[in-house]
Amino acid sequence: MQSFVIQGAGGGRPLKGSVRVGGMKNAVLPIMAAATVVDEVTELSNVPSISDVGALASMIELLGGVTDRRGDRLTIDARTILKTELDDTLAKKMRASVLLTGPLLARLGSVTFPHPGGCVLGSRPIDVFVNGFKKLGAEYAETEESYTLTAPNGLRGGSIFFRLPSVTATETFMTAATLARGTVTLYNAAMEPEVVAVADFLRAAGADIEGAGSPTITIRPSPLRAPSSPVPIIPDRIEAGSFMILGALAGDGVTVFNIDPSHLSAVIDALESMNVPLDVGDTSITVHAPAHLRPYELKTHEHPGYPTDLQAPMGVLMTQAEGESAIIETIFDGRLNYTSDLVRMGADIQLWHPHKATVRGRTMLKGREIDGPDIRAGLAFILAGIAAEGETKVGNAHLVDRGYEHIEERLQSLGASIVRIS
Ligand code: EPU
Question: Is the preceding peptide bond at 227 cis, omega within 30 degrees of 0?
Fold first, then answer.
């Protein structure tokens, strides 16, 4: 088990310099899954070096596919995929494994998988997936260990209304629908930039998709082929937002580059409301920590609202604001659990119920030993450690590695005192 050890800046603003944002985790994973509906070799570029990419590539290989990673390039050859059962161990570790269900069902007429695991963010059911597949003609059966969906003649066309706009369900159905026998329309679809990125990849492969980025998406049958050139993965807006919040916390001019600011409107608005000076360019944003941070009422929301994946880092920033801030988490019921560890670090946070907390500041955080419970809270604890006085040890480094490439090296380059230990 590895941990990060951080010597805190004690409320100072020592961080300065530029940090490059990599390809987006939550875009590359659904695009890798989407590549498995293409019966040719597809190539992706700007692929981040994060462990979730390796885990999904292993899952594709265990199904019989071939993947090859060179630098930031990744090729996927799905022609040899013949297995329809997802690897149990890997699927139980990663929620994104569910992205492979649609391609397997659509291509091979069957898929068996355990309840997908991953970050502990509260209950994470799969009813939206099961109901959607049923609408496209699949039969569903479950045992204590696994779910099985079958559609021996492939999926048919149809309309699916999502009871909530699930990101991975939208990506899964858009992908599977490219192989359906008729037109598929998705209503109440997720509108995240990563959904648009998956549609762009599929369109580059010849798919006929209209409406991605809006609540209604229509997919008409069309032959698929490999895109003619490597498809670049969009910049990671969550990583970008994490570095921006770090700049607001302890930065004396932190430039976050290789980003698309249009994906970050909610974060920009939140930081500006908190009195954080931002210099927004075409592909970069420079952030300074202000002398006085204003409190803020944050409500997470599906895109284009404030992303739940940036809620925990913002919770850390709120401990440094002067006055009472509030967090209303609307997406996941376990995503405020990290606040109890911030309280152990000296934060003044009241958790009213699983979806609401208030944060009173400004408080000086004190270094502690804490374990990150998931990717984003793990990163938030690193930010807390940088702001705190004294030494903080953040365990479960492997969880942070799932979503952030070489995080300690990039933070060191900004002047943070952080090392990785075994
Ligand atoms: N939900 C259901 N039933 C379903 C599917 C979802 O009730 O069948 C619920 C979830 O429990 C949750 C809400 O719907 O309360 C939204 O979940 P969604 O399905 O949109 O989340 P996801 O697709 O599993 C993706 C990201 C998450 C991110 C969420 C929300 C990937 C691989 N994961 O998850 O990212 O938090 O969308 O934006 O794209 C992360 O990167 O750390 C992460 C957790």
Answer: no
Which stretch of DSSP H or E encloses residue 62? helix 51-62
Distance of CA 225 to the CA centre of its chain: 27
Mean pLDDT by 10 residues, the chain (422 residues): 94 93 97 96 97 95 97 96 94 92 96 80 81 96 92 96 97 98 98 98 98 98 94 98 97 96 98 98 97 97 97 98 98 94 97 96 96 93 97 94 94 96 93
Residue 421: phi and psi, rounded to 5, are: -125, 155
Chosen CATH of 25-220 out of 3.40.47.10, 3.40.50.10540, 3.65.10.10, 2.60.40.420: 3.65.10.10
Of the candidate CATH numbers 3.40.630.30, 3.65.10.10, 3.30.2000.10, 3.30.930.10, the domain formed by 3-22+235-421 belongs to 3.65.10.10
The two three-digit tokens of residue 356, written as one number:
């609401």
Ligand 1 centroid to residue 166 C-alpha, Å:
6
Per annotation, catalytic residue among 6, 50, 119, 179? 119
Q: pTM of the entire structure?
A: 0.96
What is the C-alpha to C-alpha distance for residues 12 and 165, in angstroms, rounded to an integer?
41
CB–CB of 256/414 below 8 Å? no
- 33 by DSSP, 3-state: which? helix
Annotated active-site residue 214? The verdict is no
- The reply to whether domains 3-22+235-421 and 25-220 share a CATH topology is yes
List the residue whose alpha carbon is closest to atom 40 of ligand 1. Answer: 309
| Six token digits for residue 245 | 């919040």
Residues with CB under 6 A from ligand 1: 25-26, 29, 95-96, 119, 124-129, 164, 166-169, 190, 307-309, 331-332, 375-376, 403
Atom 37 of ligand 1, residue of closest alpha carbon: 167
Domain ranges of the chain: 3-22+235-421, 25-220
Which residue's CA is minimally distant from atom 25 of ligand 1? 167
Tokens representing 66?
Answer: 């071939």
